[in-house]
UniProtKB/TrEMBL annotation, chain A:
It comes from Oryza sativa subsp. japonica (Rice). Gene3D superfamilies: 1.25.40.180. Residues 241-362 form the CCR4-NOT transcription complex subunit domain. InterPro entries: CNOT1_CAF1_bind, CNOT1_dom_4, Not1. This is Os03g0102333 protein. One of its GO terms (cellular component) is CCR4-NOT core complex. One of its GO terms (biological process) is negative regulation of translation. Residues 27-111 form the CCR4-NOT transcription complex subunit 1 CAF1-binding domain.
UniProtKB/TrEMBL annotation, chain B:
Its cofactor is a divalent metal cation. It holds the Pfam family CAF1. One of its GO terms (cellular component) is P-body. It catalyses: Exonucleolytic cleavage of poly(A) to 5'-AMP. It is an enzyme of class 3 (hydrolase). This is poly(A)-specific ribonuclease. Component of the CCR4-NOT complex, at least composed of CRR4 and CAF1 proteins. The keyword RNA-binding applies. One of its GO terms (biological process) is nuclear-transcribed mRNA catabolic process, deadenylation-dependent decay. It is found in: Cytoplasm; Nucleus.
């Protein structure tokens, strides 16, 4: 056996067949040396004709083997957008769904150079994007606040119209009018503000009821009990994951709490006013009106917040969990599975927390 | 590793009429001692002299990459490939008398059987030219078939076991079919644009299993499409010795063992019903047959036809002494 192998090696050592096995090897080397920016387009060009080839078209195992590696590359964190796009286009051209392909795990044991690697987005760019995102969020806050105030101003004029049709038998006309006015003015908006057509920005900022500091106080910390699945490993592991989950959930909630609660409460107040004016126009018991306002507004705000926060919370949780779990293991597939399990088990908890904050915020 | 020699060989069970997965039985000659082979570079073997024995390389999961590297390096110099496979018989049988089956009927049976069953072993032999002695032989042992779980023809599986195929070793150490397929695709054996010539014996089922493997899906519905796939993967120069026998003046008939005995060709290595050993014997039978019957006109006229799947108009009427078999083994 040894002699035969030796002869084979000596006789054929110089022969090279670059195309037959080269695609996989090239991808490995490219990953390690930061050359995927050149190799992935090259590989895409080679594989694109497979679609019209009788022999090589998917699900040919040779073709699918390379697509599986590309799927693994596609799922690498911080991969440059143009590389992701190149892989997506290839899959589309071959009529293969990325979700249907099981990614390989061939790159987990390989180390790639990070410094100046053109294949990945670096942290500075990511940080810059975060700032831009914050700016956008701040602008939205102002727009939302102005909408709330405008709606309130508009609502104030309605009682006067209603009074024109009041029946003579009402015992105290002025008393009813005073109560209505009091009802229409939220506590945080002074009468002085109402007299101005355009309230100043400074006044709004100083009186903003949606600051993060105030909202965080409303978080029911005692209710937070993250759920860690037993399939994630030993008890020690579960405790570790529990700590990670607590931290990630806290950060994610703080990240999205302001915009979600602000929007939900604002919308809830507007709709509550419309409902009360329509359904309780003839109600003479002020206590009934007040309790109804409170109940309706809380319910609408809570449900709106619950519905609106699910997706952004999931995204925020994924980001925070990813950054923390990566310190434990470098297996991208394992990280993804961990994150999926943790989020599936705890996303509802996060949503419920935000819902309770929104409901508390509606208190008069 | 299964023992190559047994002191007392059990008599194989009597052959059933049209039984699947079985060639006609003759006791194989005593095995020759194993000696590492020298490469025979296009040497013309002497007439009727046994060729130097070839060592059969056993391919399992742990060495499949290395062995395919050897194949890749060798294929350009040894472009003649003899091939045989072992599989667990057939489970779908014809409802009509075999003589009444059309080629389309036979293909439909083949398709249903191959789609339902799992390949057990693949044997290939490499040679430098049509007259050269075999240079390399590979026995690729696959792990997918589990007789406790998968459908099979019990008598065929028992026959394989009695001839040294260790099914338990296959399950534990064999190559997965899904791992073998990409290696075949990149080996130079298939899609070689005519560079590789294939020699087989009654190989419709053998090619069907390989096509299923290479496509990664079930076989096509129509026979025409299947034959086109055989041409795409294996090229135009595919020779089925069983088909060529019909043009030898009626002197040759029956299974591989019988034809080999008639031509006085001895089994070079291994045992019958093992894929690599049968591929070796197929190659030697092909060489001898070519030398005795086809020197004047060559063999090109007989390429591209698989026994049992001939187009009906090619079927000679009442010239075949034996009825066509449904499956090779």
């Amino acid at each position: 056996m040894c002699n035969t192998i030796t002869k084979i090696m000596q006789h054929y050592a110089s022969i090279c067949f670059p195309i037959r096995q080269s695609c996989l090897l090239i991808c490995f080397q490219a990953y390690e040396k930061g050359l995927m920016i050149a190799v992935i387009p090259f590989t895409s060009k080679i594989l694109e004709p497979c679609r019209s080839s009788i022999a090589y078209r998917p699900p040919n195992p040779w073709t699918m083997g390379i697509l599986s590696l590309l799927a693994e590359i596609y799922n690498l964190p911080n991969l440059k957008m143009n590389l992701k796009f190149e892989i997506e286009v290839l899959f589309k051209n071959l009529d293969v769904d990325l979700k249907d392909v099981n990614p390989t795990s061939l790159l987990k044991d390989r180390v790639c150079e990070v410094e100046g690697n053109p294949d990945f987005s670096n942290k500075d760019v990511a940080a810059s994007q975060t700032q831009i995102s914050s700016g956008i969020s701040r602008s939205t806050n102002h727009v939302e606040l102005q909408s709330v105030i405008s709606s309130t101003s508009h609502a104030v004029s309605l009682p006067n119209v209603l009074n024109q049709y009041a029946t003579p038998h009402l015992p105290s006309n002025s008393m009813v009018e005073d109560d209505n006015v009091a009802f229409m003015m939220p506590k945080h908006v002074s009468s002085h503000t109402l007299t101005q057509v355009s309230p100043s920005e400074t006044a709004l900022a100083s009186q903003s009821p949606f600051s993060l500091t105030q909202l965080v106080k409303l978080i029911p910390h005692d209710e937070i009990r993250c759920k860690i699945s037993s399939k994630l490993g030993s008890l020690g592991r579960q405790l570790q994951y529990s700590k990670i989950m607590d931290t990630a959930l806290d950060k994610a909630i703080k990240e999205i709490l302001c915009p979600v609660v602000e929007k939900s409460v604002g919308t809830a107040i507007q709709n509550t006013k419309k409902l009360i004016l329509k359904d309780y126009a003839l109600e003479s018991d002020n206590n009934t009106i007040k309790s109804s306002v409170h109940s309706i507004a809380r319910t609408i705000a809570g449900n709106l917040a619950y519905a609106n926060c699910k997706e952004p919370l999931c995204v925020a949780l994924t980001d925070h969990l990813q950054s923390q779990i990566q310190t434990l293991t470098s297996n991208n597939k394992t990280i993804k599975q961990l994150i999926d399990v943790l989020i599936n088990d705890n996303l509802d908890l996060g949503c419920r927390i935000i819902k309770s904050v929104a409901m508390c915020k509606v208190s008069p | 590793m299964p023992s190559e020699f047994v002191a007392a060989r059990k008599k194989p069970p009597p052959e059933l009429l049209f039984a699947a997965g079985r060639k006609k039985q003759q006791p194989p000659p005593p095995g020759m001692a194993f000696v590492p082979s020298e490469f025979a570079a296009a040497g013309v073997g002497r007439k009727r002299q046994p060729a130097p024995p070839v060592e059969i390389r056993r391919v399992w999961a742990h060495n499949v990459e290395e062995e395919f590297r050897i194949i890749r390096n060798a294929i350009d110099h040894f472009p003649y490939v003899s091939m045989d496979t072992e599989f667990p018989g057939v489970i779908h049988r014809p409802t009509k008398h075999p003589a009444l089956l059309t080629a389309g009927d036979r293909y439909d049976l083949l398709r249903r059987n191959v789609d339902a069953l799992h390949l057990i072993q693949v044997g290939i032999t490499l040679a430098a030219s049509p007259t050269a002695a075999p240079a390399l032989a590979f026995e690729i042992n696959l792990s997918d078939f589990d007789q406790r779980v998968h459908r099979h023809a019990a008598e065929s599986v028992q026959l394989l076991a009695e001839h040294g195929v260790d099914l338990a070793a296959h399950r534990r150490h064999g190559v997965r079919a899904s791992a073998l397929a990409p290696l075949l695709m990149s080996s130079g054996l298939v899609c070689s644009h005519g560079a590789v010539k294939w020699v087989t014996f009654h190989s419709a089922y053998d090619f069907a299993y390989l096509v299923k493997l290479l496509m990664g899906r079930k076989l096509p519905r129509s026979m025409a499409e299947f034959l086109n796939l055989v041409r795409v993967f294996f090229g135009d120069e595919v020779y089925d010795v069983k088909h060529m026998m019909r043009h030898c003046g009626g002197e040759l008939y029956g299974g591989l063992e019988r034809v080999a005995a008639a031509l006085q060709v001895k089994r070079a290595a291994g045992r019958c019903h093992q894929a690599a050993s049968d591929s070796l014997l197929t190659w030697d039978v092909f060489r001898r047959m070519r030398e005795l019957y086809f020197l004047k006109h060559g063999v090109e006229a007989y390429q591209g036809v698989l026994f049992g799947l001939e187009l009906d108009m090619d079927m000679p009427s009442n010239k075949t002494p034996s009825l066509p078999l449904v499956a090779a083994r």
